[in-house]
Specification:
The chain is an alpha+beta fold and 750 residues long. It has two domains: 295 residues, no CATH class; 319 residues, no CATH class. The protein is built from 19 helices and 24 strands. The strands form six sheets. Strands 1, 4, 6, 7, 8, 9, 15, 16, 17, 18 and 21 form an eleven-stranded antiparallel beta sheet that branches. A three-stranded antiparallel beta sheet has the order 2-23-24. A hairpin with a 6-residue loop joins strand 19 and strand 20. Helix 3 packs antiparallel against helix 15. The chain is rod-shaped, with a radius of gyration of 52 Å. Keywords: Membrane, Transmembrane, Transmembrane helix.
């Protein structure tokens, strides 16, 4: 019905007592007559609702409401999908802009959800009122539902009222949950995204230095086991690093050799590089033939050396003391043979200083004063781990095997100790009785103990993670063979054949005297004490490294103190294998870095060489940046809320289907102008012409909400834009052309 102006509107009078009866059309008169009879026909209602497009508008409004709810659900589902795939994290912003971007995103989301929820409420409230006013229900229930649709606070208060006087608690709960869902969306949407500061990864290609030497043969038919590599230049690093390796060595960590970056990065980054681990395992040789004999050495310059300069004294540390003017003497020579496949121990010549320690002779050291000669570090007697003195030109290639001696004397003043396994066993040892007589009866006898053990090497390869700034392995990529070495026990060693791995097959010759730098040379020293001659075995850097790593070397306690004995705490089989493994890695690393790994073929006439090689890897650098991130907790809550709102919208806002055709109806979308708002003006309009509703509330003197709610517990129906008292109206309880079925279905919606 089109609204009339104030001058045209009829006063509020009881139905059928209008002050202007002649001005009403036939439709209104018929409607008024039908109402008095308690029956309203659809033909009558049609005259009251000239706006025939109203049902279409309601339908379009309902569709728009569903579309808005569906959009919210779809957006949340899309965000959940993005989160599960991690796609949003691909968006990276600069570190200094992260805070600004985060604020902008939060503000944008707040504006978006405010607009869309406002639109939802603006559409939902009229739909809800139209649905509620199309149902037969108590006036209290109608008032409660209308009030609840004002907002979450009103819904909560109305529910509290229903706890005392129950009118429609279930519907009120649904409405309250609906508004609570909208509130949740208002809370969760602005915090769906964050831009935390993270380390952004950036990958670049970088050149690397290959960690291990690579061998090239002039003759493709050559075999590595037919040539003897020259390790001399590569073994120099032993004197630089020593057994207590603490300096930074990019490309080398304990027994692991790995590739390194040719140029390090100024920013933090990591790279995946190749590595090779060298693992040596040793066993005892139980059937070696070890004998001792005497070799004559002319020592005419002996007295001169003993009383010579400090430098000479430090280099020689002669053990036979207190004798001057000696023109000749005999030195012990240790000969040993052991046939183990193609390998032989060969011979080991050791000087008298190897077996005798005395503090009876002293010389003056400008820095330390008068010291016993036996305290000098370069004394050969302090080098306990020895390799056989095999003549390289006449030997069979060793491949990945080596035989070593451990020479010790537990009865000497500065006694040494054997190599033990974890159970304290020393394996197979050999006793040698050496007679030495230089004019001192107390030196007539010397007893030596010799351990002979064989060792083999094997390699393992893999990839490790490298720090792109320091060229050092990250902690997780550092090798750890501690448990392996700690649990080692002596067993019978068995030599292995060629392994077909060049790095393994050229390993044995690494420890031979000719392949390592001697501790001293002939410069400034008489020939008879230059142990590069056949008189004695010159200790090498690699032998010194092994001795210091396996045993704690002697130290000085004071001017009058004797030498401190070798410690046997670290002299274990595991420590020996660890030292050999680390020495191997150190020599290989030096060979690869310096390109000194080359030799002439001794049997085939071929030669091979190694040069510094380069490769490539990918460096993943990291820098601080802001990375977009979906927060799963508010996203999950928001998704659940949006789905719940869609379901409640279908339940609470779906228009009521009314009976059409020639059937009489009680109202609905066709029953006059649908109610789209419930303000004071609408209430006054709906009470027009129906004094019965007003009369039932007029006797209530108290305006208390609960009192009014109790008084309004009678059924009403909104029809033709007016509130009708169903209970007192004539004929409203009767069944007219199937109307009871329609009313019953509407009552179930209360």
């Amino acid at each position: 019905m089109n609204p009339a102006s104030d001058s045209e509107r009829s006063p509020l009078v009881p139905l059928g007592e209008s002050s202007e009866p002649d001005s009403r059309g036939e439709g209104e008169k018929s409607y008024e007559k039908s109402q008095k009879d308690g029956l309203i026909l659809e033909s009558d209602v049609a005259h009251l609702n000239p706006d025939r497009s109203r049902p279409t508008k309601v339908k379009l409004t309902w569709i728009a409401c569903l579309v808005l709810h569906t959009v919210v659900v779809v957006l949340h589902v899309v965000l959940v999908t993005l989160w599960s795939l991690g796609i949003e994290k691909r968006l990276v912003v600069r570190f200094d802009r992260a805070s600004t971007v985060s604020t902008a995103i939060n503000a944008g989301l707040q504006i978006f959800i405010s607009i869309i929820t406002t639109a939802i409420v603006a559409i939902a409230q009229p739909l809800a009122l139209q649905r509620q006013f199309s149902q037969r229900q108590t006036l209290t229930a109608l008032a409660d539902k209308s009030s609840a649709w004002s907002g979450l606070g009103s819904a909560v208060m109305t529910f509290i009222y229903n706890l005392q006087i129950s009118a429609s608690p279930f519907s009120i709960v649904q409405i309250g949950i609906y508004f609570a869902g909208l509130t949740v969306l208002h809370t969760t949407t602005p915090i769906l995204f964050s831009v935390p500061i993270t380390l952004d990864q950036h990958q670049i290609s970088a050149a690397t230095i290959i960690g291990t030497p690579k061998l090239y043969f002039d003759d493709p038919q050559s075999r590595l086991e037919t040539v003897i590599p020259d390790w001399y230049g590569s073994s120099v690093g032993m004197g630089t690093f020593g057994s207590g390796l603490t300096m930074a060595t990019p490309g080398l960590y304990e027994n692991r050799v790995y590739d390194t970056l040719l140029s390090t990065s100024s920013t933090s980054g990591i790279a995946e590089v190749n590595y090779t681990d060298f693992v040596v395992q040793c066993g005892m040789v139980p059937n070696a033939n070890v004998i001792a004999s005497m070799s004559h050495v002319v020592a005419s310059s002996y007295n001169q050396i003993v009383s010579g300069s400090v430098n000479v004294g430090r280099r020689q540390a002669v053990g036979v003391t207190g004798v001057t003017g000696v023109t000749g003497s005999s030195l012990p020579s240790l000969q040993s043979d052991h046939d183990f496949g193609p390998y032989s121990l060969g011979s080991l010549n050791i000087s008298a200083a190897d077996v005798t320690v005395s503090d009876s002779f002293r010389f003056h050291d400008p820095m330390h004063g008068s010291l016993p000669t036996s305290l000098l570090y370069w004394a050969p007697s302090t080098i306990l781990i020895r390799a056989p003195g095999i003549v390289v030109a006449n030997m069979t290639p060793l491949g990945n095997n080596i035989l070593l001696y451990s020479v010790y004397n537990e009865s000497a003043p500065g006694f040494s100790s054997p190599v033990r396994d974890r159970n304290g066993s020393i394996g197979s040892t050999y006793s040698i009785d050496i007679s030495v007589d230089f004019g001192h009866p107390d030196m007539a006898k010397q007893w030596l103990q010799v351990q002979v053990f064989g060792c083999s090497v094997h390699t393992s390869n893999g990839t490790a993670v490298l720090n792109g700034t320091t060229n050092q392995l990250v902690e997780a990529s550092q090798p750890n063979y501690t448990e392996l070495w700690a649990g080692r026990e002596w067993g019978v060693w068995e030599s292995t054949g060629a392994s077909q791995d060049p790095l393994e097959d050229c390993w044995g010759s690494m420890f031979l005297p000719a392949s390592s730098v001697a501790l001293w040379s002939s410069a400034g020293i008489a020939d008879e004490w230059n142990c590069s001659a056949s008189a004695c075995h010159v200790p090498t850097l690699i032998e010194q490294y092994l001795t210091d790593a396996v045993f704690d070397p002697p130290s000085l306690l004071g001017d009058e103190s004797a030498i401190v004995p070798f410690s046997s705490l670290n002299a274990t089989l595991g420590t020996l294998e660890s030292a050999l493994s680390k020495a191997t890695a150190m020599t290989m690393w030096t060979a690869a870095r310096s390109g000194t790994f080359r030799s002439e073929g001794k049997f085939s006439g071929t030669s091979f060489q190694s040069s510094v090689l380069y490769g490539n890897t990918t460096v993943t650098s990291e820098k601080q940046a802001g990375r977009l991130q979906l927060n799963i907790i508010p996203l999950s809550i928001g998704t659940a809320s949006s789905l719940m709102l869609l379901v409640l919208a279908v339940i609470l806002l779906r228009p009521v289907s009314t009976v059409t055709g020639s059937t009489a109806v009680y109202g609905g979308g066709h029953a006059g102008t649908p109610v789209g708002n419930l303000g004071l003006l609408q209430v006054v309009r709906m009470l027009e012409g129906n004094p019965k509703v007003c009369e039932r509330l007029a006797h209530v003197e108290d305006l208390d909400t609960q009192v009014l709610r109790k008084a309004a517990m009678f059924e009403v129906l909104v029809l033709g834009g007016r509130i009708l008292d169903v209970e007192s109206g004539p004929g409203f309880g009767r069944t007219v052309h199937g109307i009871e079925k329609s009313v019953g279905s509407m009552e179930t919606l209360r």
